[in-house]
Design brief:
The chain is built from seven helices and no strands. The chain is an all-alpha fold.
Length: 187
């Protein structure tokens, strides 16, 4: 019997954090095209940070089949990219004298609930042309906070799995030793 030690990973498209990262990317693209002036270097910076957040979740998930270390590193890069994007949105609001909603703002509670719901997945694209730059930036800030929270939890789970199962080299060695043991038992 052939020993399998490479568990197929992936499935990132089903992760809530990946779905949120797609929304963050789409909103950021719309936001930069709508509210920033052509030629502003911030456009590329924000779009690339949003893209990096999304792409590194996917790449880390796919790399997990052969490297727990790479999975953890890429998941952390996704988190760092979203943190960079968060600062860009905060800067946008601050330098324009717009409000970054705090916990005493009743709109923030509603925004958090909406951002956590499945409704956002279906509705966000049609919502974008109807909301202001302040509302859109606060929506993205909320989504980024939720996503980085989920990414911290995901990294903790990835670390726990590594401690329990080891890396691919350990799994390969274990499978090889079990295979040898099985072959010796047949002789």
């Amino acid at each position: 019997m052939t020993q399998t030690f490479l568990r197929q990973k992936g499935g990132y498209r089903n992760l809530r954090v990946y779905q949120a990262a797609v929304i963050i990317y789409d909103i950021t693209f719309f936001f930069t095209q709508t509210f920033l002036q052509k030629g502003d270097r911030t456009i590329d910076q924000m779009v690339q940070a949003a893209r990096s957040g999304k792409q590194n979740i996917a790449e880390g998930s796919e790399a997990a089949t052969t490297s727990a270390e790479m999975e953890i590193k890429l998941t952390n890069v996704a988190k760092a990219s979203l943190e960079e994007l968060l600062i860009d949105y905060e800067d946008y609001l601050r330098v324009r004298g717009l409000s970054q909603w705090t916990t005493d703002n009743p709109r923030l509670g509603k925004m958090r609930e909406y951002a956590k719901s499945q409704r956002i997945v279906k509705e966000y694209a049609s919502l974008l042309p109807r909301i202001s730059d302040e509302e859109m930036a606060n929506l993205c800030i909320t989504l980024i906070h939720q996503s980085t929270y989920m990414l911290r939890k995901l990294i903790a789970r990835q670390q726990d799995m590594f401690l329990k199962e080891g890396g691919v080299r350990e799994q390969m060695t274990k499978a090889r030793l079990q295979s040898r043991k099985g072959q010796e038992g047949k002789q």
